[in-house]
Design a protein that fits this description.
It contains four helices and twelve strands. With 231 residues, the chain is an alpha+beta fold.
Length: 231
């Protein structure tokens, strides 16, 4: 151990240590990989998943990217030096944009102003070319359902109530009375015919002077639709 006492040993040892540490440091600088460019990571993610990267940032050697694909949003983490995807998580779904539509209360006002029935149920339908309201009616003598343009309030379709001789607005007795305003006499025949607009009655009347007439009376409105006279 006499060499430990020699004056040249300590400086030589320090020189070796410094050279060794410096070599490791320089080697680490040479071997250290630079982070990949953000645009490269963006292109890689969009190519891999077919989506669009909306935002990208880097923290502690990891890229965080927010992207959209189809009808969903995703969050991705990517190793900044290797480009390896560390995680991909769905964070939400895109909400379908619905144009400004009339409120349900406004639609109910429109229905109340046009129909004598009451609004039993109202539903907003957005799956078609334009949004519509479907309104189910109750206690209306003629209609069971109407569809309304949800943006303009215009009535698009009306569904006529299916009537029979028993539930028609105009009763059998009222229909006969209407026919007899045109021809006084006895009722020879009476029938009800079902149609898409509410149906009608056919009433045959024979008067005392041998005149005979067949009257077609609308079962909803009571209007005389036609009169056929027999010779």
């Amino acid at each position: 151990m006499h060499f430990l006492k020699k004056s040249w040993f300590i400086p030589s040892l320090l020189t070796i240590v410094l050279l060794t540490v410096g070599g490791f440091y320089i080697g680490s600088l040479i071997n250290k990989q630079e982070p990949m460019a953000a645009d490269t990571i963006r292109t890689q993610l969009e190519s891999m998943y077919g989506g669009t990267v909306d935002r990208i940032s880097i923290t502690n050697g990891v890229y965080q990217a927010e992207m959209s694909r189809g009808e969903a949003f995703y969050s991705a983490e990517v190793d900044a030096t290797t480009g390896s995807v560390l995680s991909l998580t769905q964070t939400g779904e895109m909400k379908e944009e619905i144009p400004d539509v009339l409120s349900e209360s406004k639609v109910k006002e429109i229905i109340a102003g046009k129909y004598s029935g009451e609004t039993e149920r109202i539903s907003l339908i957005t799956g078609g070319e334009a949004p519509i309201y479907e309104v189910k009616l109750s206690k209306d003598p003629k209609f069971t359902k109407v569809t309304v343009d949800a943006m303009t309030g215009k009535i698009i379709t009306e569904t006529v109530k299916e009537t029979t001789g028993e539930n028609a607005l105009i009763t059998k007795e009222q229909a006969i009375a209407i026919a007899q305003t045109q021809l006084k006499g006895d009722v020879d025949d009476f029938s009800y015919e079902k149609t898409s607009d509410g149906g009608y009655y056919l009433i045959e009347i024979e008067a005392a002077d041998d005149r005979e007439g067949t009257f077609q009376i609308h079962a909803i409105s009571g209007k005389i639709m036609s009169v056929t006279w027999d010779d």
